[in-house]
Design goal:
Blueprint: E1 3-12, E2 15-24, E3 30-34, H1 41-48, E4 56-61, E5 64-65, H2 71-74, E6 78-81, H3 93-98, H4 113-125, H5 141-154, E7 159-163, H6 171-186, E8 191-195, H7 199-203, E9 208-213, E10 216-220, H8 222-227, E11 238-241, E12 246-249
Parallel strand pairs: 3-8, 3-9, 6-7, 7-8
Antiparallel strand pairs: 1-2, 1-4, 4-5, 9-10, 11-12
Amino acid sequence: MSLKTVNLTVGYSGREVVSDISGTLPQGEVTVLIGANGSGKSTLLRTLTGAQPALSGRVELDGIDIQDYKPATLARRLSLVLTDRTGGGGLTVEELVSIGRHPYSGFLGRLSAADREVVGDAIALVGLAHKTKMFVASLSDGERQKAMIARAIAQDTNLIVLDEPTSFLDVSSRFEIMDLLGRLAGNEGKTVLLSTHDIAPAMSVATNVWAIAQGRLEAGSIEELTASGTLNRVYRGVEFDVAAKDFRKV
């Protein structure tokens, strides 16, 4: 799986928010996208996943412009977990995760034995095997988010993109989710791109950083972006502490 941006400018209603992005997403690793509120993180993720067109430039997935993919084909290449509070309360965990198999289940949407095995493996991987038959509405926020990630895993894509996956979660759940994403990259070879304001938990598993500062995106390791001063331009009134892997007030 190769995701590449070429002279990409993203925005909405004709307004540019991040411009002139060119680069390749590292494969099989966790990349964290950071930026202040309104800096364009969600807009960038929507453009990278084909949910909205670029203002200019292009996004290439395995050498093909992402806008040229048919939806069913794209759904086999990348999966997306959004920032909204997870829905599906009237479904069981198994039923919710099974939705991830729809790109493979044909017109009638019937799951084969192999599909059900993939669903079961995904549920077990996120640690919810003991709650397979429970309704999503009965889960904690952290468990619901794990179920949504399990759905993305069941979709069996090489690329998983997440927009603020730890929103609404308590501190321990935030670290659990980040640890899970780290294991997906390290043990399962998945390429993970996530946006977040939970810097310390994310930096504990991320090997790469995409930082939006002043309408530009800079990519590199934590050390590289610290040395260049990029991380200190992301938020107002704070600076990045390399030892703590977090921001602190100046």
